[in-house]
Fold these 2 entries.
Entry 1:
Amino acid sequence: MNCTDKDGQKHLGKVYLVGAGPGDPGLMTLKGKSLLECADVVIYDALVSPAILAMINPQAEQINAGKRMGRHSLLQEETTHLLMEKAQYHAIVVRLKGGDPFIFGRGGEEMAELVQAGITVEVVPGITSGIAAAAYAGIPLTHRLYSSSVTFVTGHEAAGKYKPSVNWQAIAHGSETIVIYMGIHNLPYIVEQLGTAGLSSETPIALVRWGTRPEQEELIGQLGTIVEQVEHTGFGAPAIAVIGQVVNMHSILSGCRPV
Ligand SMILES: C[S@@+](CC[C@H](N)C(=O)[O-])C[C@H]1O[C@@H](n2cnc3c(N)ncnc32)[C@H](O)[C@@H]1O
């Protein structure tokens, strides 16, 4: 990629909100990769894989803004201010986020704050983990025989919260495939809610951890068994959960995982 603008100059102050994809470097977009190679500053999240970080221009300043459950390296507000500050002194500032920036990545909030502050900003979509991790586990989210609709939902909603924003009753009946992000810690609550909403305890469910990375792991079960399986195996985050009949395709397709 030519790292200068059309006039051959580097102009100050553009922030690119780039999706890093789920981990496999082969799933990074060409546009995202070019930006990493030209970047002056890269501020990245915890779930961005080492293979993607290795694409960053070695001269670029690299800042880990990673946030994982309960461990904030940088607060959201601090990250946004840092982006604004870096854009005043550098031409290409990349905000690198796992998966897709606009899917449970706070990309919309960050971009809006930058726009309101008068910063030029552009989004470069990435492949979201909900699609890619399921695919690498041999689970097509739609299938002409089993599912004609899919819902992406966050499971990061504390049980007992006064007014949960996720309506599990509606989610249970809204589509044939449900993909839950950040749901492992709340799995017992989510499973209970879906059961109360009427989903059978025999509904297939797959958990896919570190999807598309060499260390990818899968746990396949049913709504009635999965909580015990997780306790038994110690299966942990980061993982997506896929619920619905399409999970049965795993037994046929999982052997076709890319190598
Ligand atoms: C804050 S959300 C960010 C989602 C991201 N923007 C995306 O589009 O994939 C973090 C959650 O995404 C899911 N996730 C991200 N990367 C993953 C991966 N490689 N395998 C499985 N799940 C992943 C997990 O549910 C994790 O808790």
Note: The first strand starts at residue 14 and ends at 19.
Entry 2:
Amino acid sequence: MPSASAQDGLFSPVQLRSGSVLPNRIAKAAMEEGLAGQGQLPDERSIALYRRWGASGAGLLITGNVMVHAEALTGPGGIVLDADSPLEPFAAWAWAGKAAGAAMWMQISHPGRQVQANMPGVAWGPSDIAVDVGRHSKRFAKPVAMTVDQIRETIDRFAITAERAELAGFDGVEIHAAHGYLLSQFLSPLVNNRIDEWGGSLENRARLLTEIVRATRSVVSPEFAVAVKLNSADFQRGGFDADDAHQVIGMLAALGVDLVEVSGGSYESPAMSGRPTDGRTAAREAYFLELAANLAKSSPIPLMLTGGITRSDTAEHVLAEKVAVIGMGTALAVTPDLPNRWREGLGAAGTLKPVNWSDKPLASLAQMAQVRYQMRRMAAGKEPAPGIRPTLALIADQRAKARALRHYSRWLTSEQREQTTTPTARAAVR
Ligand SMILES: Cc1cc2nc3c(=O)[nH]c(=O)nc-3n(C[C@H](O)[C@H](O)[C@H](O)COP(=O)(O)O)c2cc1C
């Protein structure tokens, strides 16, 4: 079995440290679907979507971020897996993705301060520094600095979610430490100004991530894959940079991490959609490749690179730079069978309309809305419609969010939820 280097091209298997094998080097990257059903659980729509992607020819499917804390969601349609969630819906979701032989990993996440101001629940951060996106800043909640107890609870929550993902039949988890969410906030010297053991030096800023990896590894089986999504850089002056990423990868290697997915950016500098505020990243294919290639030269852990890949020659080029797995989000929302098409020498079935708006945060939202529009269509058994106009996609997205927010608010305050989230219930479920 080949190791996790790129000797044999896109369709060669990858053996990971934990022993699990990915059938090929093409991954569907995490994309928050916003499709949670009753009780913030996956339902027939998530199942339909992942059955479709499971047959795409990709070797690995990573779910959109699943929330570890019911009171802290990246968006109102977010799926929650905590100590109180029933496992059956998650088992059905896992099996839908795995039915055609792909590995299915759950991305697990906490938004920290990156929550909308209109969301119920909590807005936590390493410090009480709010998201700054210029005139759109009011859209985000004002965070409170986490107590040490809240930090420890959060470590437990990630481990519980990972343990239960394995019980449900997932093959691995990816811990989301990128894109300005909680773990990325702790890593950032711009957002984390704590003076205790959770802030200051890089080792301290990485402590929440490393403790979560440690706690997760201690509750899952050795063959269960544990991956981390990490920013190669935050693309903000004075923020987490490529040297920091290099050092954090070294820390993760010692803890038994199988794969690190390299990405970049946050809401403040949306480099993950090719729109960093400092303008260093061109909107081009595989825009993080230079950073990832440098990291790959010395990385003790196989790397996955996501961001802007749509063509097989770009993907091959990325593998040639010693990246082990290529990730695609947008391209697989537009052309859900793209890996199979590549095998046949074909390309993408279409492209999204470009969003050349001068308001970068709004353009980034519209671009995400165009992608989510495709996911909603596939979840309803329809074909993607990439020609949707960005403004219309944005309106449809806002409507779906408003509906989801009503359901989530009702659920969070429901008597039933209150009764089942007592500490005793939690202990019993574990
Ligand atoms: C609608 C949408 C939702 C996303 N949700 C997530 C997410 O839940 N977790 C994550 O790590 N990245 C998320 N991303 C970022 C993608 O994983 C990926 O890094 C980014 O889209 C760039 O890759 P691409 O050019 O192949 O789409 C999302 C992207 C889009 C468009």
Note: Confidence is low (pLDDT under 50) at residues 1-7, 277-283, 422-430.
